[in-house]
Design a protein that fits this description.
Number of domains: 2
Distance between the termini: 23 Å
Helix content: 25-40%
Strand content: 15-25%
CATH class of the largest domain: Alpha Beta
CATH architecture of the largest domain: 3-Layer(bba) Sandwich
CATH superfamily of the largest domain: FAD/NAD(P)-binding domain
């Protein structure tokens, strides 16, 4: 680290590690400030399913899949009902293919394109992942590479609590506070706020998204709105503060993620009355508030042996099954007895959904099925969850935080949940990968922009 301080301070060792690695590769000195010493298992990146959309990647080309910025932007527009940030969606789409290839070639991740199932809202297969399909393996690899790089230093545990601007209105320094309240001022020309959103601040959640406020929070306890508070002091614009990723399939018994792959492969969800209540394939995020509004705010995901076996590649699913959360029964009546759900309703729903899956009748909610469910059946009781917020500081296509007049605050960048994302309002605009794409994509863009400016290119 130079005597003048780092070229870039990254606040947050989740998706922020992408910025650290990219900036270091481009010759910058980087300091990563992380609030939790347990970040390898406690941040949202570690809890994710490790899916990153990549538009126009070589894996898509190898599969003969045609994708484009326009197609991705249209998917965002459709899923968000026209409310998503198109400038940001296009910027992220434009860099996403390059980024996932960089993650493979420069960071050493074993990347592949997910083609075994089609996630709701995406017109084509574009979600890339790693073999484990889980964030723990992803964050372990990123942290290991970052710690080994001579240009990257870590300050853990420490919380970035303030950003100082100089007389010209650009970043001059950051203030870092340790767990004992001791503060240190570090001079730097650039800072990336990668501190996630405010899901752990229950008051802010209740204020901006009351429909999910009572649900289980399944995210980092350090996601307390730090970026919002810092940005407000600096005059940053904010947007989409009501946006979030919800989930309708958090296993009640183990607080592990059952996963929406069960649904996409043919599972159905029943509420405590034994009935289906919505189109399950519409998306896992909107099912968070859907389920929260049902009697008892709980339900059961019902699937069969075929679905179980197809979901085995997902670490989250295996952990849920190993926890003993699955209830198995030889037929629908036995499943009703095992779950305590009304027998007639369960029998009727499974018969009707199977007929719809075979094409004998239209599904009353308009969903499509991969295949009908066949006995024996499994069921897992699930509860709604809030995973992370999707609103925050407004950024431009280079991840630069802007003020109310869309003017960049020079040297200040935001990514992931610290930034206003591309999911529009509420929970229903969330596309699979809308968490990691702004987390990784904006971090990548920020590092590239800082390097360009340091080299005199901006």
């Amino acid at each position: 680290m130079s005597e003048e301080g780092p070229d870039l301070v990254v606040a947050g060792a989740g998706g922020g590690l992408i910025a650290a690695l990219r900036a270091a590769q481009l010759g910058l000195d980087v300091l990563v400030v992380e609030a939790s010493e347990h970040f390898l298992r406690g941040n949202n990146t570690s809890m994710c399913t490790a899916m990153v959309p990549g538009v126009g990647s070589r894996w898509q080309r190898e599969q003969g899949i045609e994708d484009s910025v326009d197609l991705f932007a249209a998917d965002v527009d459709r899923k968000t009902k026209g409310t998503g940030d198109q400038r940001l969606a296009r910027a992220l789409a434009a860099v996403s293919g390059e980024m996932v290839e960089w993650m493979a070639d420069e960071v050493g991740l074993e990347i592949s394109l997910m083609t075994d199932m089609h996630y709701p809202g995406h017109s084509v297969d574009r979600c890339h992942t790693i073999p484990e399909r889980h964030g723990t393996a992803l964050i372990d690899h990123l942290a290991r590479r970052a710690r080994a790089h001579p240009n990257i230093d870590f300050l853990v545990p420490a919380r970035l609590t303030d950003v100082e601007l100089d007389a010209d209105g650009r970043v001059a320094a950051v203030v870092v506070t340790d767990p004992h309240g001791e503060q240190e001022r570090i001079e730097t020309p650039a800072v990336l706020l990668a501190t996630n959103g405010y899901g752990a601040d229950r008051e802010l959640v209740a204020e901006h998204m009351p429909e999910i406020a009572a649900a289980t929070y399944h995210g980092s306890e350090t996601s307390r709105g730090d970026a919002l508070r810092i940005g407000a002091r600096l005059g940053a614009a904010t947007a989409y503060l009501d946006a979030y990723q919800g989930h309708g399939a958090l296993a009640a018994k183990a607080a592990t993620l059952l996963g929406w792959a069960t649904i996409m492969h043919g599972a159905v969800m029943l509420d405590t009355t034994g009935h289906r209540f919505a189109k399950e394939t519409s998306g896992y995020s909107e099912f968070g508030p859907f389920l929260a509004a049902r009697p008892g705010a709980t339900g059961w995901v019902v699937y069969d042996r075929r679905v179980h076996d197809l979901c085995e590649p997902f670490t989250d699913f295996r952990q849920t099954a190993e926890s003993g959360a699955e209830v198995w029964a030889d037929d629908a009546r036995g499943l009703a007895a095992a779950t305590g759900l009304p027998e007639e309703a369960v029998v009727a729903e499974l018969e009707e959904s199977a007929r719809a899956a075979r094409g004998e009748i239209p599904d009353r909610f308009g969903r499509d099925y991969e295949a009908p469910l066949e006995p024996p059946y499994a069921a897992v009781r699930v509860v709604p969850a809030l995973f992370h917020t999707q609103g925050g500081l407004v950024v431009d296509g280079s991840a630069r935080v802007v003020d109310a007049d869309d003017r960049p605050i020079r040297g200040l960048y935001a990514s992931g949940g610290a930034a206003a994302g591309i999911s529009g309002h509420g929970a229903s605009g969330y596309l699979a990968g809308n968490g990691l794409l702004p987390a990784f994509g904006l971090a990548y863009l920020a590092a590239t922009a800082v390097a360009s400016e340091r080299a005199g290119g901006a």
